[in-house]
């Protein structure tokens, strides 16, 4: 179950985290970034549980935990349709148990499509990878990103041309332990994602009133089809039954917004000399005639022709040579 709890956190216009869990954010690649300080597997399992309740076909590529641990807490009746691809028992194929064993060394779009097609039905497919960190540690980053892009393009292509997505890959849920990789590797994976959820521990400074404090803070970045980027930060708690409660945006006590100034600062205040004029000084300044400022009377006197005024007479000399040609005619200008 999903719930938005009103608490002493700042209110939000939309609950992006609940939209992601509910599957209404638009599909595509969803990356959940966590760390050892705040694990994000609970959010991944909440998304998986919600997809199972929507009667979707859910496939899980499990590398970090066993199938029993992953199924713990899922809806008992709905979890029967979950398909777990075991990469936990022998992730590097050291024991060679079974020819169809899932390994991190063979992570490719072709291999994943083949596994999904074995049990594909008319329902839309949700693929969960728990976790991608194991795959990244044993495969080149470019190869992993290329495989994710090919899988993501399958749903994007059918959405653009408006073909029915029944039985096709609708969404890819990826759990990524960001503290195990370099920043460039994490950024490369997140660049492919349409939605990135970064979970961090709740510091206890949010001022939430209630018996149960939020479990963590989810910082969500979502790129919609129009190209606009939406960002939201929300406190959340995941229950034992994988129900999610969102408390809203965490407040930060002690940080107050500066009050708007009613008047601008006076630059002439607190000076050792006086920059202000008295009324008498201002009147004298206004009545002062500047030496290069021409009044209307002075302009009229200078422009008025006077009798007997000087004239300039020029008579060309006979020896003056006047060249009628253009002296710059030979220049290419």
From TrEMBL:
One Gene Ontology biological process: tRNA wobble uridine modification
Q: Where is this region: Disordered?
A: 305-333
Gene3D superfamilies for this protein: P-loop containing nucleotide triphosphate hydrolases
What are the annotated GO cellular component locations? cytosol; elongator holoenzyme complex; nucleus
Does this entry carry the keyword tRNA processing?
yes
Q: Where is the composition biased (Acidic residues)?
A: 317-333
Major localization class: cytoplasm
Record keyword tRNA processing present = yes
Matches recorded under Pfam families: Elong_Iki1
The pathway to which it is assigned is: tRNA modification; 5-methoxycarbonylmethyl-2-thiouridine-tRNA biosynthesis
Q: Which UniProt keywords apply?
A: Cytoplasm, Nucleus, tRNA processing
Q: Where in the cell is it found?
A: Cytoplasm; Nucleus
Q: Which PANTHER family match?
A: ELONGATOR COMPLEX PROTEIN 5
Would you identify the family this protein belongs to, as annotated?
Answer: Belongs to the ELP5 family.
Q: What is this protein called?
A: Elongator complex protein 5
- Species this protein is from: Lepisosteus oculatus (Spotted gar)
């Amino acid at each position: 179950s999903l719930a938005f709890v009103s608490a002493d956190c700042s209110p939000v216009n939309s609950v992006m985290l609940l939209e992601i869990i509910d599957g209404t954010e638009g599909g595509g690649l969803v990356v959940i970034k966590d760390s050892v300080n705040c694990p994000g597997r609970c959010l991944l399992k909440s998304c998986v549980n919600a997809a199972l309740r929507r009667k979707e076909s859910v496939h899980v590529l499990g590398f970090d935990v066993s199938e029993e641990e992953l199924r713990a807490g899922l809806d008992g009746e709905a979890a029967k349709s979950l398909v777990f691809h075991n990469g936990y028992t022998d992730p590097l194929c050291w024991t060679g148990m079974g020819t169809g064993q899932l390994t991190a060394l063979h992570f490719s779009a072709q291999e994943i499509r083949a596994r999904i097609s074995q049990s594909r039905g008319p329902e839309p497919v949700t693929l969960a990878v728990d976790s991608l960190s194991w795959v990244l540690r044993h495969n080149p980053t470019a190869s992993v990103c290329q495989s994710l892009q090919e899988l993501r393009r399958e749903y994007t292509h059918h959405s653009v041309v408006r073909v029915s997505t029944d039985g096709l890959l609708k969404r890819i849920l990826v759990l990524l332990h960001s503290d195990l990789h370099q920043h460039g590797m994490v950024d490369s994976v997140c660049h492919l994602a349409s939605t990135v959820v970064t979970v961090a521990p709740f510091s206890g400074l949010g001022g939430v009133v209630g018996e149960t404090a939020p479990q963590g803070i989810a910082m969500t970045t979502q790129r919609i089809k129009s190209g606009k980027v939406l960002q939201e930060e929300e406190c959340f708690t995941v229950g034992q039954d994988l129900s999610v409660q969102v408390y809203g945006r965490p407040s930060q006590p002690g940080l107050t917004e500066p009050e708007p100034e009613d008047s601008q600062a006076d630059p002439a205040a607190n000076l050792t000399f006086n920059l202000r004029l008295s009324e008498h000084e201002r009147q004298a300044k206004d009545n002062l005639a500047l030496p290069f400022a021409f009044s209307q009377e002075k302009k009229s006197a200078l422009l008025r022709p006077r009798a007997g005024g000087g004239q300039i007479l020029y008579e060309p000399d006979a020896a003056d040579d006047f060249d009628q040609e253009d002296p710059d005619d030979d220049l290419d200008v």
